[in-house]
Structure formats: C-alpha cells, structure tokens
Specification:
With 314 residues, the protein is of the alpha+beta class. It folds into 3 domains: 1-30; 41-110 and 138-170, Immunoglobulin-like; 182-312, Immunoglobulin-like. Helix content is 16%, strand content 39%. It has helices at residues 2-30, 246-253, 301-312, and strands spanning 41-42, 50-62, 67-77, 88-94, 108-121, 126-129, 134-143, 150-158, 163-170, 186-189, 195-198, 211-220, 230-236, 241-244, 258-267, 272-275, 279-281.
Length: 314
C-alpha cells in the first residue's frame, strides 16, 4: 500500500510539472507581460530554416510631423546568426480581435547594420561600451491603424513557402511623448578626441512614467549610411548628455568619413517613442559655438528667435 501511495504521489508530481511547463509555455506564446521573456514566441519554427528572434510593437512620432505605428522584427538561421538578406516573401499582421492589419508600402526588409552598444550605469556613475560591433538585420512593418491592447499575431512566409506564426502581447496605451528639439543638440570632439553631445531635457513628462533616451551616432561614407557602423547608447532621461571616449569613437572613424547624430525619448518598455530630427556632425571641424543652432559659426538674431521658440514650445 505504501509503495502504491508513493507511485500515485510521483505520478501526480509529474503531471503537475508538465502542467506548469505547459502553462509557462502558454504564457510565452500569449506574450503575457508578467512573463520576463515575453518579447516574441514562434510556434511553428520546428524543422524550419529560420526563426523570429525578436519583434516589437511601437507608436512613433517625429519632429518632422510623422506619426504612425510600426513593428520591427529580426530573423535568425539555424546557426543562431542574423540573416543578412531578405528571406521573407510575405508578411501579415493580425490585431487582438483577429482582424487583418493594413500594412504600408514600405513594409519589408529594412537592411543590415553593425551596432556597438553602450549605456550609462547610474549606480556606478560610469559609461559602459561593448568591445566590438554586433552584425544584425531587421524587418519593418508599418501601419496607420491604432494599436490595441492584447495579443498581436504575425504570420510570415519565407522564400521556400514555409510559414511562421509569432505572437506579441501589447499592454501599453498609445501616448505622444515630448520631442527633444534637434535645434538644442550641441556636439563636438575635444582635444583628446572624446565625443560630447548635449541637448535640452524634456520637462513635461508625467512623474509616474518610466522613460529613457536612446542616442546614436552613425558612420557614413560620403554622406550615405552604408550600415557599416553605429554607436547606440541608452541614457537616463534627466542627463541630457552623451559621452563617447576616443577609444570607442575611433571604431566609427574606421568605417566612415562623416557622422549623423540621432536620438529619441522612449518609454522603457519601448512601446512609445518620440524622434528628433537627425543632426549631421563633421568630426574634422572645430567645436561648435554653443547655441549656434544653424551651424553658421555666429550667435545672432536667428539664435535668439530659436531660443524663444524652444521656450514657448514651438
């Protein structure tokens, strides 16, 4: 009787473990936000050459007036490497109600790029940067329909006709964050070759909203972004400053002869972003005069008017 009872207990334990594993997998597949690894769940990639590595749903606004929703995702192969060419021939997106989302014409393969990631560690008061660039690629899915709360379903068909279904749970309401005025961006390299960049810190952010700033510097060749190198840094919102040491910035110098600065304010879950206009930066020129928003080397009436516009929120 005792052996029989032990057998029953073991059987029940196994069933409970299996049920918990299934429940955890279901939490993943539904993209439950309480589950830590809830970014993406590919349910049908078994025995297939590709898998969806990650995908995001975002609401974006831009300083130039653009306002739309977008989904970005990435594809990896069986060697766990990003696929650097277009292998998806069809993309479909379905909202939480099961309705097909109308996608814009610029949906598709976004291209490949090399990123070197950095961040400011507030606890240590230090800037931290990776040693090398990471080679990645991405796909872009843009649409005008409003984002809904709930689980989105993305259906992909690769060039061999194989189908991949992935799910992403969206629990963030759409909001328009304040845009950091590009006219407030001031960048230079000092005598030691260290890169400094500063901007006006947005003030009208809800106190209970968790945000940060992402800033990046892209290396270009003769004014064209070839995807050969960018430094991408996450910064606390209140800092309003980016620092890249010469030893890190030199990695960009090897892949380009001019540079473009970009930044956006974002909620920390990445669901809402406000993009500033890009700023061209020539590292060969002497430091800019602070406040010289039109980069003409002087501070005059134009800067005074711009300052008034920034203060008044125009």
């Amino acid at each position: 009787m005792k052996k029989f009872s032990i057998a029953i207990v073991l059987t029940i334990a196994v069933l409970l473990i299996q049920n918990n594993v299934f429940a955890a997998d279901r939490e993943k597949n539904l993209g439950n936000d309480n589950y830590v690894d809830s970014a993406n769940y590919d349910l049908t990639a078994v025995d297939k050459p590709y898998s969806v590595e990650w995908w995001h749903l975002q609401h974006r606004i831009y300083e130039d007036g653009r306002d739309f929703n977008v989904s970005h995702f990435a594809i990896k192969d069986l060697n766990d490497s990003y696929v650097l060419n277009n292998v998806i021939q069809n993309i479909e997106l379905f909202d939480p109600d099961g309705n097909s989302v109308k996608l814009s014409n610029d949906t598709g393969f976004g291209g490949k790029y090399k990123s070197l990631f950095g961040k400011y560690n507030s606890d240590l008061g230090q800037w931290k940067y990776d040693e090398t660039f990471t080679q990645e690629s991405y796909y872009r899915v843009a649409f005008d329909e409003s984002l809904k709360i709930g689980t989105y379903h993305m259906k992909l068909t690769d060039i061999n006709g194989k189908v991949y279904d992935s799910y992403k749970y969206n629990n963030s309401p759409v909001m328009n964050l304040p845009i950091i005025p590009s006219s407030s961006v001031y960048a230079y390299k000092n005598e030691a070759g260290n890169f400094h960049c500063s901007w006006v810190v947005p003030e009208n952010i809800a106190s209970d909203l968790s945000t940060s700033v992402s800033a990046w510097v892209i290396a270009m060749t003769d004014g064209i972004d070839m995807g050969e190198g960018e430094i991408y840094v996450k910064i606390p919102t209140h800092m309003g400053h980016l620092f890249i040491p010469n030893s890190v910035f030199q990695k960009l110098d090897t892949v380009g002869n001019s540079f473009k600065i970009g930044l956006h304010l974002r909620t920390n879950d990445g669901s809402n972003r406000a993009y500033s206009n890009s700023i061209l930066f020539d590292a060969t020129k002497p430091p800019l005069i602070k406040g010289d928003f039109n980069r003409d080397g002087t501070i005059d009436l134009k800067e005074a008017i711009n300052a008034l516009q920034v203060i008044s929120g125009q």
